[in-house]
Specification:
This is H-NS histone family protein. InterPro entries: H-NS_C_dom, H-NS_C_dom_sf. This protein is mostly helical. The protein has 3 helices and 2 strands, in the order αααββ.
């Protein structure tokens, strides 16, 4: 807000008019977005849906899970690895054929 006050004090008339146009445009866009949000929420209520219903559909992970190919006990814990990506420390220098899952 301080920056705006400083700008207003030092700006010329043409700069102030340009700033007013930008602000009016921003206010109009904001108002339109708020109206659109209200329309969408009203439509959801009308159809008996919630925002969570839409998020469940949108957040579906389309990647497939890869089953672990290797399993080893390391420091008292079971460590599994798919065989993809960087080899975990537990599998460094180990014959993988002996640790198939």
């Amino acid at each position: 807000m301080k920056e705006i006050r400083s700008f207003v004090k030092s700006a010329s008339l043409s700069e102030l008019e340009k700033a007013k146009q930008l602000i009016d445009t921003a206010i109009e866009k904001y108002t339109q977005q708020q109206e659109a949000k209200k329309e969408v929420l009203d439509l959801l209520k009308e159809k008996g849906l919630t925002l969570e219903d839409l998020q469940d559909v949108a957040s579906t992970d389309k990647r497939t899970k890869v089953k672990p190919k290797y399993r080893i006990e390391f420091n008292g814990e079971i460590v599994e690895w798919t065989g993809r990506g960087k080899r975990p420390k537990a599998f460094q220098g180990v014959d993988l054929t002996k640790h198939l899952a």
